[in-house]
Amino acid sequence: MPQDKPLERSYGRAANEMRPVKLTPGIMKNAHGSCLAEFGDTRVLCTATIEEGVPAWRKGQRAGWVTAEYAMLPASTGRRTPREQRGRKGRSMEIERLVGRSLRTVVDLFKLGELTVTCDCDVIQADGGTRTASVTGAWVALHEALEAWVHAGKLKKMPLTGQVAAVSMGMVGGELLLDLDYPEDSRAQVDMNLVGTADGRIIEVQGTGEKVAFTRDEMNALLDYGQSGIMRLVDLQCEATGWEG
Fold it and tell me: Is the pLDDT at 87 greater than 60, yes or no?
């Protein structure tokens, strides 16, 4: 395999190190739950809103629903990103479906009852890994919203069953890397995302050979990198929320 000139990693980090990550809860006054997720220069504002009722197809099942929406603000990238119109979503729809199904994996929808939780993920600044920051920050916002409803007596028990976080991995210049920023992602020969739980289980793996095929050994090594990143992220979630499982 030809070797590209390796990039000097941001923040002087090693191949298996993440960018500085910061999860700041409670930053939106009117949201039931909120979190600013910062992965290096990537910043995603995540909010969670709880509403009475469920989608029509869900009625009568005595179970709730958790869904998500994702958007990139126009000035979040180097060149202005046009606002997306409803019905013309493409990549955004794929990401919001990822966020929604990831969160539902760690929510007991029957304990939630006939409520709908919408997690909105708005990218303020994009430098790679916006979908993984969205999943990770949305869990914090969801926790905050559900905890508030339990304290208010609107929910008998916390319906969360665990934590979920996500991180990117990839191959750049023949080297395996954890948590790619944009310069790395734009050059990646292999691009991968991992969504996982605090106890090491995998919710979703997205992996593509962008320029080359990759081996099973390389995939396993990337997953090892990813799971180490997930462990770091769930620790930060616990620090932000006080969650003890």
Answer: no
